[in-house]
Design goal:
Layout (H helix, E strand, L loop, with lengths): L5 E3 L30 H4 L4 E5 L1 H7 L2 E2 L9 H5 L24 E4 L3 H12 L11 E2 L18 H8 L4 H23 L7 H4 L3 E3 L12 E5 L9 E5 L7 H8 L2 E2 L15 H13 L5 E5 L3 E7 L5 E4 L3 E2 L2 E2 L5 E2 L8 H12 L6
Parallel strand pairs: 3-14, 4-12, 8-10
Antiparallel strand pairs: 1-2, 2-5, 4-9, 6-7, 7-8, 10-11, 11-12, 11-13, 14-15
Helix pairs in contact: 6-10, 8-9
Length: 352
């Protein structure tokens, strides 16, 4: 971030120097993050990094990472099918218990993109919409060229992920917390207000437990209408291939046993995930997101949970530790834009 993007603030505000344990949300050299103010900062005017929130959301990407014992992340993006999943006896049900019968398209991607862009453009920097002050940036941890840099411990984390707990940290700390922070800024909510806590997505695997389950479940806190306004379900990319995602998002009907015994098809991972989403949402809420990190599907159930409408899969841009973007096919908006928009739809601030 260049010097002309750093401005002096009015008196009375605290310096933007905070303790950080992960990524610094400003370009190296544009501001100093430390446990306590360095000597030079104590004698300087308070500085605030200003940035364009619209630019950040539209240009950021998901951090590329390496995990011990699995293929390179880019190679996983091209993996068609994952290794066959085991039987999850905890998920089996009697025929008819799961009422989901049909998956349909949510509509033309161009129309969806237009709705997302119309919403996002409200936050583009202009004379009416000034840049966001850097006070807001510590929780924006997704990489974005020229706006975010990583510390050594971040680099060590991304290059040496070890286990499921590391994946949960990646989803929560870097990805979901960045989106919820962006929504908080858009909603002009104070960081520590009680209502702000309702924006947090919390891991809640107890909603659909299974021994050696492949998924992690994050839910938005309940509101006046739904116990689960939105759920985000992650499956690691080595457990769910590109054709598995295509099968999941395809228009289809379920027979009486498909979501009961979960063993009627050669490739059953997709049906298992539909069973999981049904069990999480039925009686609790309607909006959901499903992803294998590379590819994302956004959807909603009807009032009886008998039908689900889903988008086509959206491919995520990846950003490596050098800041280089590994671009994905573009459908008019990126994954973070539509995730932010879908977040607001689930909260009732936008119509779907």
């Amino acid at each position: 971030m260049s010097r002309n993007q750093i401005a002096s603030s009015s008196k009375g505000k605290q310096p933007l120097v905070t303790e950080r344990s992960f990524a610094s949300s400003a370009a190296e050299g544009s501001f100093y993050y430390a446990a306590s103010p360095p000597a030079w900062a104590q004698s300087q005017p308070t500085l605030y990094v200003r940035f364009d929130l619209y630019k950040y959301i539209t240009e950021c990407g998901l951090p590329a990472f390496n995990k011990a014992g699995v293929a390179d992340l880019l190679a996983l993006r091209d993996m068609k099918r994952a290794i066959a999943w085991p039987q999850f006896s905890e998920l089996k049900r009697a025929p008819g218990v799961r009422v989901l019968q049909q998956i349909v398209s949510a509509g033309d991607p161009a129309v969806i993109a237009a709705c997302v862009k119309k919403y996002m453009l409200q936050f583009k920097t202009s004379e009416q919409q000034p840049p966001v002050e850097g006070e807001e940036m510590p929780s924006l941890r997704l990489p974005c060229h020229g706006m975010t840099t990583f510390e050594d411990r971040d680099e060590a984390f991304f290059t040496g992920m070890r286990n499921e707990d590391d994946m949960v940290m990646l989803y929560k700390h870097y990805l979901l917390d960045s989106v919820t922070e962006a929504v908080r800024i858009m909603s002009r909510l104070p960081r520590h207000a009680p209502i702000t806590d309702t924006l947090r997505l919390r891991i809640t695997n107890r909603l659909c437990p299974a021994h050696h389950g492949k998924w992690d479940i994050f839910v938005l806190g309940k509101d006046a209408f739904n116990e689960v306004p939105m759920v985000v379900v992650f499956v690691p990319p080595w457990e769910f291939g590109s054709e598995d995602i295509d099968q999941f998002a395809a228009g289809q009907f379920f027979g009486p046993n498909d979501l009961a015994t979960l063993d009627t098809k050669e490739h059953k991972a997709s049906d298992i995930m539909w069973a999981v989403l049904h069990d999480i949402c039925k009686g609790r809420g309607y909006k959901f997101v499903f992803t294998n990190y590379h590819r994302w599907v956004f959807g909603t159930f009807d009032e009886g949970w008998t039908r689900a409408s889903v988008t086509e899969p959206y491919d995520a841009n990846l950003v490596d530790l050098t800041g280089a973007s590994i671009a994905a096919p573009y459908k008019g908006c990126n994954v973070i834009e539509i995730l932010t928009y879908w977040f607001q739809v689930a909260r009732g601030f936008q119509s779907d």
